[in-house]
Each structure stands twice: as structure tokens, then as C-alpha cells.
From TrEMBL:
Residues 3-237 form the ABC transporter domain. InterPro entries: AAA+_ATPase, ABC_transporter-like_ATP-bd, ABC_transporter-like_CS, P-loop_NTPase. This is Iron ABC transporter ATP-binding protein. The keyword Nucleus does not apply.
Length: 257
């Protein structure tokens, strides 16, 4: 499965928010959208899932325009994971993950759906908390449940909006490692909006750096996350050095003059 955008653009009212977005994404890869607040990361994710309808251009899944897909068929191919869901959702973890089976449900939950939810819970190491309530979980646990719900859709493309936001360091790494494992084991396309450049540098196979609604640079982390790009896009002077594995590490120094 491939995910391709051609000349994608979106406006809120008369304000252009995205323009001329060109990407070609293949399975088994984690793609990180980088850029400061207001650069268009979350808007791009929502356009890829048609939560927002692009004003121009195309989103193609396996060369098929997403606009031609029925809602159920789209949901079976693409799943969107928001930054967070309401903490007041009084559903069990099992029920929350079962919501991901909606594209497959008719009038009742079938045994196949229950088996799939149990399989996803086991895969995500959530089986022991299946009967706990979502609103009683920690931030990191809730994030894992949202990812599990997306996986229960059976989608090959996962769009994640700031999946590590508001998590402590341990859970940030746990979620990043989990996503890395999932993309390899299930040959997924993962598209993440991330603020943390060091997480992007460490885990991304491909980085798309957005600036003022367009693509400023894209490529490997080493190609994109350099001092000049960070200075122009973020307005920050930074020291960038290479780790032993060849991936960059970013140390912000001061606002750029």
C-alpha cells in the first residue's frame, strides 16, 4: 500500500494553511512531520484522513483517490490517532478498542470482532487492563489504548497527531519503541506529527519539515535536521551532531538573531 499526495492544499476561510504538498510514502516506514506551531502538521494529518477536505490536489491510496472511497472502506485503510481523547470517557479498555471495529460492524458485535480486539490487546500488552476504565488510566496508558483502537480497524496507514505529547520521558520512549515495532511487524505506514526533533531524529525513516504551510525540506533525518534548516524554520540556533548510529542529535542554543 502506498500513500501519495499531489499538489495538496487547504485553506481556512481565505487563509491558505497548506499548499503544494507532495509526498510519496511506502509501507514499513515511519514518517515524521516536523515544524513549529502553525506550520500545518495537524492540518495535513486531518487532510490525509479527510477529516478536513482539501481545497486542491489529491490524496491517493494505492493510486486510488481517497475521495472515491466509501467511508467504511477508507476507515479500513487509514486510521487517525488524535493527541488525546476526553479523559471522561467511562468505557473499559476492551470497549474503547472495540470502537475501532466500527468499519466492520453491522448490527452487533461478532465473535470475529471480539477475537480481533483480544489479539490487539495482547499485541499491545494491554490484556491485563482490558476491564479497567479508560478514564482511570495514566496518560501513557491512554495513548496506547488509542493506538490499539486504531490497530483494531485493520488499517495499514496510521496517522498520529503528537502521540508523545504530555507524556513523561519513559512513556515517550515506550510509545516510540512500540510504533517502531509495529511498523516493522505489520509493514505499516506511520505518519506522526512531532514537536520533539530528537525523537524524530532517533526514530523517523523520513522527515517532512513544514514551514508556513509548505514543505521546506524532506528526506532522512540527517538530511533535514541540520543547523540551517532549524534556524530558518524554527528561528532557533542549534548545535547538531551525529550519534554513533549516524542519526543527528539536536541541542537548541538560543533564539536566532
Amino acid at each position: 500500500m502506498t500513500l501519495v499526495t499531489h499538489n495538496l492544499g487547504f485553506s481556512y476561510g481565505g487563509k491558505q494553511v497548506l499548499s503544494q504538498i507532495e509526498m510519496e510514502l511506502s509501507p514499513g516506514r515511519m514518517v515524521c512531520l516536523a515544524g513549529p506551531n502553525g506550520s500545518g502538521k495537524s492540518t495535513l494529518l486531518r487532510c490525509l484522513d479527510r477529516i478536513l477536505r482539501p481545497k486542491q490536489g489529491q490524496v491517493l491510496i494505492d493510486n486510488q483517490d481517497i475521495k472515491s472511497l466509501a467511508p467504511r472502506e477508507q476507515a479500513r485503510r487509514v486510521a487517525y490517532v488524535p493527541q488525546s481523547a476526553s479523559q471522561n470517557l467511562h468505557f473499559t479498555v476492551f470497549e474503547a478498542v472495540m470502537m475501532g471495529r466500527k468499519p466492520f460492524l453491522d448490527f452487533r458485535v461478532k465473535e470475529d470482532d471480539r477475537r480481533e480486539v483480544h489479539r490487539v490487546l495482547a499485541m499491545m500488552n494491554l490484556k491485563e487492563m482490558a476491564d479497567r476504565f479508560y478514564d482511570e488510566l495514566s496518560g501513557g496508558e491512554r495513548q496506547k489504548v488509542l493506538i490499539a483502537r486504531a490497530l483494531a480497524q485493520g488499517s495499514q496507514i496510521l496517522l498520529l497527531d503528537e502521540p508523545t505529547s504530555n507524556l513523561d520521558l519513559r512513556y515517550q520512549l515506550e510509545v516510540a519503541e512500540l510504533l517502531t515495532r509495529l511498523k516493522k511487524e505489520h509493514n505499516l505506514i506511520l505518519v506522526l506529527a512531532l514537536h520533539d526533533l530528537n525523537l524524530a531524529a532517533r526514530y523517523a525513516d523520513h522527515v517532512v519539515m513544514l514551514h508556513q504551510g509548505g514543505i521546506f525540506a524532506q528526506g532522512s533525518a540527517a538530511e533535514v535536521l541540520n543547523r540551517e534548516n532549524i534556524r530558518v524554520v524554527y528561528g532557533v540556533e542549534a548545535r547538531v551532531y551525529m550519534e554513533e548510529d549516524g542519526r543527528p542529535a539536536v541541542k537548541p542554543l538560543r533564539p536566532a538573531a
